[in-house]
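During the no-cost extension, the postdoctoral fellow (Dr. R.K.) reprocessed legacy sequence entries with the updated structure-token encoder. One reprocessed record is reproduced below for audit purposes.
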Amino acid sequence: MWISVGSLSQSKPMQYELPSGPATRAAAVVTVSQLLRNVRDTLERRFPLMWVRGELSNLSRAPSGHCYFTLKDDGAQVDCVMFKSRLAALDWEPANGAQVEVRALVSLYEPRGRFQLTVEAMRQAGLGPLYERFLRLKKKLGDEGLFDGSAKRPLPPHPQTVGVLTSPAAAALRDVLTTIARRNPAIAVIVYPVPVQGEGAAGRIAAMLRRASARAECDVLLLVRGGGSLEDLWQFNEEALARAIRACAIPVVVGVGHETDFTIADFAADQRAPTPTAAAELVSPSRLQLAALLADCARRLAREMRRKLHYAAQGVDACTRRLVHPRERLRAHGSLVGQLSARLGFAFLHRLRAGEAKLARLQAGLAGLDPQAVLNRGYSITYGANGAVLRDAAEVTPGDWLRTRLARGEVDSEAKRTS
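Re-encoded structure tokens follow.
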């Protein structure tokens, strides 16, 4: 029995003869499992581990950690699987569009009868043409400042109307509508139907963006679609779409593909969301969270009002304590006046007595210096002919008339001699 299998290295099919033996010749009919098992064994024997070069596409990781992707070139493609243990050995992250070389075993996945490569190792071998084009456009627009954060507009915190640009048949639209309805059904949604894949989709999306901007009926716009290969998402890497996003008068959120998918539209958007659902969550504040926030604000407001009232009551109490009847104030002032009068009288009397004492001391001092007091003790004062007090006998000449002052009265005399 013969089977034809497409070869990666040859343009013509290669023919292999299935093993034959007594059991095979005896059984004219084989089961599907036997057939595919024999094909798998033949492939694995015929093609040992080899290096195959191609471009990564449709890259995805299963919850088990295994990686599934397509390896392609200009003329063909092949499904590949790289198990978790082999993937963990990579020191770089595979991405769609990357040119790689894989060390793989040619095999067959029996449960589905699918030809595939089981990848044991992978190394980078440059970038694919589409990805190179993506990087060139990204650099060009980035150098122009199209992606500058300063030019991006903030999203409205509480939008009333959200516009959604996507295909009406897309699962992304259902995800967005379901998410907004769940989080905040009060938000109105306007759908702007556009194709999100295929030739010319970028131009039609750009035109719809301009129309939505001119109509100005939304607070924010969502541009969304589900995941896909680099080719599927390529319309979101067109320059015309990026410029239309930046020229739109309404903030634009782009949620295209999966979390690991990046497009030029993501960089041009006012904000990027990893998925359509995340984009819807980004622009729809949760009603439950808003209600909880409102309740918390009400509690805080009530608490603040109670605190203000308590402070005001304490202030009134303090003012009440300071409030005194005018009669009491007059009585208190009268008492103060009496105290001050008493203190004034006492101070005046004290000053008077102190002055009297000082005067007495001065009088005593003066009395001690009074010449009359000296005369009263038996002394006398003699004046010369010129009326000056005599202090020296040499100042007197015999025959001079002298006047002597006593304690009581005066005596005139003539000098007879001096000594």
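The longest strand covers residues 114-127. Residues 185 and 287 are 8 Å apart (CA to CA). The remaining legacy entries will be reprocessed before the final report is submitted.
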